[in-house]
Amino acid sequence: MASDVPTLHYPHRTSTSTYRVPTPPRIVVPPPALNSDALPEITLNALKESAFLNSVNYNNIVTQNALLEWTYERRREAQMILPYLYLGPMTAAKDEAWLRREGITCVLGVRQKGAFESRVMNGVLQKAAALGLECHTVDLSGPQELIHLFPATTIQIYNHASQRMQTTGELGRILVFCESGNERSAGVVAAYLMETHEDVDYIKAMQLCQAQRFCVNFDDGMKRLLQGYWDILCAKRAVAAQGIDQPRQAAANTNGAARGKRSLQRDDDEDMEGIDEDDVERFGGRSFVPFVDEPL
Q1: pTM for this model (two decimals)
Q2: Rounded distance, CA 118 to CA 207, Å?
Q3: Taking Cα atoms as reference points, which of 164, 236, 197 lies closest to residue 81?
Q4: Element (H, E) at 69
Q5: 137: helix, coil or strand?
Q6: With 70 as the cut, is the pLDDT of residue 266 above it?
Q7: Hey, is 149 helix, strand or coil?
Q8: If you compute the radius of gyration of the chain from its CA atoms, what whole number of angstroms results?
Q9: For helices 184-196 and 220-242, angle between their N-to-C axes, nearest 10 degrees
């Protein structure tokens, strides 16, 4: 006997939008193209207005950290991302022999506020300072704070390298590190690449970091953070390309707004005066007062 109860047809299980909370689309970072030697082929062009960056030799920077030679033990070491910029874990910042051999002149530590690693990093920084290295730290309550700190970290890296070049004629070498060297510090290095090179967007910045340090892990949150920062950089460059004098333009807009406000106020006053004259003509001869109750 056939049932009169209607049969409900549900979508197939492969329809993820039906059984999952809607989420932003994932940002996929494709592997970089390989050359004939099976090495990543990544080109870099520094911003033209920077004389210091234009003096850096970017030839064959990836070949020094070939992916085919990567081993698990190398995650405990630091790798060169640029000829003057290194990325690695906290253990690399404690390796006095490595610091001297690579000629590191500055360390930048990225740490979590209140975490145990913060106290451990204090000892690492004291040891680096004893070696005569310049030391900087970035303290975070959460990864999302990085987008506000990217400009400051970029300035710290750039200023040290450029000032070292001016005073000694040699490149200063900066080590950016966190506990693992794979997450927060990698985001700082990727942001620096985007801000100082005209042909590096957030995808290419992550590609370069992963090509040099294969164990780098950009999770979805960090990818969106770098994507948002890239949008900010594009907006700033678009404004700068227009050649607009910002203070003068802002003053002009303010004066124009003030003039418009006075004009509007004058029109309102004229309208109110007209209403007053009409009211006198309409209600002048009447004996009662509007909106006042008469005694019973």
Answers
A1: 0.73
A2: 29
A3: 197
A4: none
A5: strand
A6: no
A7: helix
A8: 31
A9: 20
